[in-house]
Every structure is written in structure tokens, then in C-alpha cells.
Amino acid sequence: MPLQLSKQKISPYTVAYALLAFIVAICTGILLYTHSRVDTVYAANATNFNHTKIISDFVFTNNSSMSAGDIQSFLDQKNSVCLRNYTGLALIDANNNGQVEDWTQSERYGGASGTQQMSAAQLIKAASDIYGINPQVLIVTLQKEQGLITRSDCPQWRYNTAFGFGCPDTAPCDQSAYGFTRQLDNAAYHFKNYMTGRDAMGNTVYATYKTGTYNILWSPTTSCGSSRFTIENKPTASLYTYTPYRPNQAALNAGYGTGDNCSAYGNRNFYLYFNDWFGSTDGYTIDARILTKYEQTNNLGSTSMSTVCGIKDGGCYHHFSNGSVYWSQNTGAQRIGGGIKSYWNKQGAEWSKLGYPVSDETYFTGGAKQEFQGGIVFWLGSDSTISVIYDVVNPTMNMVCGIRDNGCYQHFSNGSIYWSQKSGAQRIGGGIKSYWDGQGSEWGKLGYPTSGELYHNGGARQTFQGGVVYWDNASGAAKEFNNLGTPSMSVACGIKNNGCYQHFSNASVYWSTASGMWRIGGGIKNHWNKQGSEWGKLGYPTSGETYFTGGAKQEFQGGVVLWIAATNQTVEITNANILARYEQSDNLGGSSTSTECAIRDNGCYQHFSNGSIYWSQKSGAQRIGGGIKSYWDGQGSEWGKLGYPTSGETYFTGGAKQEFQGGTLTWTEASNTVAATYR
């Protein structure tokens, strides 16, 4: 039984008196201890008691082993007459600093009002959480000190001295330490701080024993002697400071019974009750490197396994109820859990491309992220979606949030990651990022990236909220395409001249080394597809669509395609001279033929719905139509005496005329006749 004084504010006379009693007790070895027996059949074997390590670090400090509800269920199961319906002044750590708040100069319990109540289960859990001690340790201590878990008689003095604080053999109990809540608070406080030597506020806490080698008495009877051994861990040192006797062989052989005149039972009974009620005090073996992470991490919970080692790169892992810890030589020990761990497991865990985690989870508004050897995983809390960024290394800054749409970003040595609720987390770097930055980054019309960079022959592309940016390695330039819509496929390569393409809901993008990257869609694309797309005589597009009043045009390796909005017709022109004349002419309409060449003087022509254009080197490209063209055709067209037209039609009142290489044709409207004048 402990002789530590309460940490409450008590009078100097009480402190001096208690200290004197404590010194006398230490010197004489007549420290009070208790042994509570109950008539129950137990399975624990006291001869397995390890005096050098009574309980493991993890088990002793596992404050998440039981909830308040679990503790209440345990008290009900044990039919704990003294505690299952007990209520007392509340324990509250108002400042969340590992210390019960001093509400007034004289009272620290019951909250600010001094009257707030908690059940015994709630009190035990509160002390456990405030001081980081396993609630099972506190339950067992209650039993071994006063038998309050199982006994049926519950006089007030047992509550007042529930944990034995301030009750030395040589003097009356210190009444300032009375009370169930105060006793519980002191027990948990000292259990925790015996191990550290200081409390949460930096105050020194005296401990008789620490890890190391000591002579420890067999019992309060000093003539029984002592044994010298090494205390292996801090929790065991804390228990010996609390109850400073080692049970002798007679005590161990007796189980819960009585040994001989030199037997002490406090630590033996702690061991027996704990093993019978909650399992091994050794718990499960936890690798020291993982245990350090566990102690640094809040709320990992309990475990039902020992650490497993020998996985990838000689690593280790340990699963807990609220997450896992993975360790390797290169990454250290890192916590992983929740949706990120579920995704990682599906990818093959440490054996996957991601490898081991190299950080714990970092939380931000809307989600969380975790870094791995091979990349970063983002988890979006609203719909539990996952974004994975591979091949980013060496962060050059911490993550920054609060940019557009409450997004976040982080720069790395080989790229950056940008995240928003709508776009997810995406990697961006190189020439595409330089272009994007120049357009205003996430604040520009492109908005956030909605995909990572996708690489293909000769370049890369990346989709954004407001469009797509392509990077051409050959030219070292980026091109932006808007209104493509959503991708309907991945980039496909290996077409004509080892080119690539990708279809979107509103258009497509085609690329080749010679032509570059260009958007194509609508009626022009439909026409191009009918002509054999890149394999046809038009070849790849060499420009984007250019819009003009009434339509649009797009250039290709083999010509130009125009789209007429009024008639929804397309015009394919493969001769630049004919194209120039077409663009200068009004209302020629769609083409009824493709461009035809290899006629007289290596000329070319093309018929349209409202006329034709003929071209030769000497005559240039000229429009011809109506009655004049009909007459000219009857004379052998370009092969006749008139040759090629050298001008367009000139209109005058009552008719029109047109010049040719061999003469002039005049059309009279009234008679609808044509007259020829030859040179």
C-alpha cells in the first residue's frame, strides 16, 4: 500500500506530520499493505509472476483499453455493490493539459461549481485519460487495496482510503486525502508521474524506484531481508514505489492465499487480478520503435496482436483498434489508418508502388493526406474519394491552404500538388505548370488541374477545370484548348506517323511531330472523319478552328476545311490559291467536288454549290458561275479558245461580263444570252 501524500493543498503541519511518518516508515520498513481475498476460482498462476517486469509499458499506459461504458459493464458483471451505482465529485481537466484543474483555492473536484458528479465508471475513465494510465490498472488497484470491486460491505472509510493515500502504519490517515475522487486522482497522478519524475506542470514527483538495480524488501518486516534485482521498465518501478515489496516464493505458491510471515501480497495480487480479469500484464510484444510512435500518437487504441517484423525491407507493423503503425529503416515509424489505409492495403500496402508511409496523416479542411515513399495519397472526407500522386519527392515547403475555393497546395523538388474540393489532388509541373502560372494559376480561367500530367509520344497533356493544356516537347511550348468537355478515353498513340489522339465529349485533340497538337470538332471533324481522318489526303490538322462570320475553318496538312453555319455544309479545299479566292467570295456555298488539279497548264478547279473557282499560274484563281460559266463550258472551258478566266464577274446594269485569257464573255440579263469577243 502506498504512503504517498495527496497532491491537494493541505496545511504545513499536516505535510510535516505526514512526511515524518513517511520517513519513519521507510526507515523501519513497516509500511502498511493490504491483501483483499474473495472466494472465487481464478486461472492466473502466481508462480509466473515476473518481479523484474510486472507489467509492460504498453499495457500500463493503454488508456484506450476501456471506455466508460466498458467499465460500467465490467462493474455490473462483477456485481460491484460498492461501485456500480456510486457517484462522486467529477474529475475534469479543463485546460486539457494533463492536470485536474484547481477550481478554487481549496477544492479541485466537482468542476467550477464544486458539485458536478460522475459515476465510478466515468471517474475511472476520466483519471485514465487525464494521466494516460490504463483504466484496468486503476480497477485492479481498487480491488487489491480495499476490495471495492467485489466486496459487499461498503463502509465510508473504504471510499475515503480507496487507494491508500496518506495512511501510514505509524499514524492516523491524513483526512485531507480522504474521498474516492481524491484517492483516484492521486493514484493515477502518481502512477503516471512516478515514471517521469515530473508532472504535467513541471513539478517534481518523488519516486523511490526507477529503472535500475535495487535492494527491495520482502515485506514490512525488515528482518525478513531483501532481494537485489534490476527493475526493467518504468511501470514496474512505479508499482514498486507504490507498493515497495517483492512477493516471496511462499506468497507466490499460495496464489490468492496466505504465504508465510515474510510474505507481502500487494504486487502479487495486482498481477493475479489483472491476469484473471483482463489478460496478461505482458500484453502483446510491441517493437520499441513502434511503441515510441504509439506513445506520441493520440487514440490509436488497444491491440490484440504482437508486432510483426520481417516484411518488405526488414520492416515491422502493428495493428491497433484505431489504426496501425508501420516501420522500416528508411521511413521510420508512421501511423496509418482510415480511408487512406484501406486504399493502400488494396494497392498492396508496403509492397505496392507507394511503398511505406513516410509521414503520418495530415488533416485539412475537407480531407487528409499522407506521404509515402512512392507518392502522396489524398482522402476527400465528403465522399471518401481517393486521389493518388506518384513520383513527388522532397517537399520544399509545408502545405498551404485557404487559396481559391479553400484549396491547398504544396511544392516539391520535382513538381507541385494542388487540391480543391471539386478537382481533387493533382500533380502539376514542368512546362505545363509554367504556362498555367502565366495564366494566373488556380485563379485564371483554367482553374485547378483535374488530372495529373499524362505523357505520350513527344509531349504531355493535363486537364483543368476550364480546359486542357498540351505540352509539345519538339517546340517547347504549351497549348491551351478550351471547351473540350470530359475525356471519353485515354491518350492513344501509334497512329499515322506515330501520332496520338484523345477524344473528349465536345471535341478531339490530334498530335503528330510534324503537325503539332490541335483541337478538332463539330462539322469539320465529321467531314475529316469521312475523308479518312489523318490517313486521308487532308492528313493531320495544323491549326485550330478559326471562326469567321457565318462559319469556321481549319487547316490541315493537305488543305483546309470550312464549315458554313447557315447550311451546315463543309467545304474542303486543298489548293491555297483557290482557298484565298473562296474566302474573298460571297455565297459560293459548300463544295460539290474536291479540289481537282492536273488540268491545262497544271491548273486546278473546284466546284461549289453556287459557282466554281479555276486557277492557273498565269491567270490566278477566279470565280466563275451562272450563264457565263455555262457558255464557257460549252466552248471547252479552260481547254477552249478563251482559256482560263483572268478576272471575276463584273456586274453592270442589265448584265455582267468576265475577262478570259483569249477574250471577254458578256451576259445579257434580258435575253439570258452570252456573247464572246475574242482577242
Which descriptor suits the 3D outline? rod-shaped
Query: What is the mean pLDDT?
Result: 85
Question: Which spans of ≥5 residues are poorly predicted at pLDDT below 50?
Answer: 1-42
What is the overall number of helices?
16
SS-based class: alpha+beta
Radius of gyration: 45 Å
Note the gap between the termini: 135 Å
Strand order of the largest sheet: 5-6-7-8
Total strands: the figure is: 36
Q: What percent of residues adopt helix (DSSP H or I)? A: 10-25%
User: Could you tell me the strand content as a percent range?
Assistant: 25-35%
Report the biggest beta sheet as strand number plus sense, adding barrel if it closes: 4 strands, antiparallel
Oligomer: single chain
Describe this structure in words.
There is one protein chain. The protein is of the alpha+beta class. It has a domain at 12-278. 24% of the residues lie in helices and 25% in strands. The strands form ten sheets. A four-stranded antiparallel beta sheet has the order 5-6-7-8. It has a four-stranded antiparallel beta sheet with strand order 9-10-11-12, covered by helices on one side. A four-stranded antiparallel beta sheet has the order 13-14-15-16. Helix 3 packs across helix 4 (120-131), helix 5 packs across helix 10 and helix 7 (180-196) packs across helix 8. The longest helix has 17 residues, at 12-28.
Summarize the structure.
By secondary structure, the protein is of the alpha+beta class.
